[in-house]
Amino acid sequence: MGAKVVLLGRDRERLEVTREAMLDSSDHLLYAVDLTDYDGVDAVVKDAVAKAGKLHGVIHSAGISTTLPLKLVTPDKMDLFFRTNVYGAINLTKQVTRKAVMADSGGSIVFISSVMGAVGETGKTLYSLTKGALISASKSLAIELAPRCIRVNCVAPGVVETPMSANAVYSQDEQLLNRIKSCHPLGLGRAEDVANSCVFLFSDAARWITGTTLFVDGGYTAR
Ligand SMILES: NC(=O)c1ccc[n+]([C@@H]2O[C@H](COP(=O)([O-])OP(=O)(O)OC[C@H]3O[C@@H](n4cnc5c(N)ncnc54)[C@H](OP(=O)(O)O)[C@@H]3O)[C@@H](O)[C@H]2O)c1
Asked: What is the span of the domain harbouring residue 141?
């Protein structure tokens, strides 16, 4: 859409592949960083602003998923999931909303939550906890940051065909996969479906939208 993009993730090769797939690929910056390494994120954000100028929007999409019965949920697993899916998002938001980083005219922050942040499913307690936390946090952040015209929203996808869903338990079993498909009246989603909703939330067309969650789920939560 013509933006200059800064890509963050741990795996440099995957970031390179993503950058190569983008228009004007040499315009975009990439940094291999673990979002749970808070000092590392601070340094990357400072470097990106020095090279590309102040930011107008940030999408936090990094996440891990699992299907785990309650009896297998442990404190260590809860720590890991919260560190990656929630604390990493809040720390990134803290870094990117500093006055020296976010454009003076304001900006748009989008957290990629999930339908599991709003509705339930067997074995999804751990994942739902973290995705629901993003929905809750976006509301208070929206109020806190509104005076600076920084909008904060979530996108909550249903099942999207990505490496995450390909590795999920339901993708290993035809019957389970058919059940998951049948929960999505419009079929499973594509990464572009989620990306397009982020483009909308970044645009001026969404100038009066903050603290809300856009469900992009092929009808999953319409039932
Ligand atoms: N696919 C679905 O069906 C679905 C449905 C609802 C919501 N979502 C959400 O959508 C988001 C993207 O999921 P996806 O399907 O694209 O999953 P994916 O293919 O597994 O990608 C996850 C991404 O998160 C990055 N990541 C994970 N931990 C990180 C960390 N500590 N630091 C930096 N980057 C990290 C990974 O990059 P590296 O490995 O390179 O670090 C990878 O790019 C997630 O938040 C997920 O919960 C997905």
From this structure: 56-222
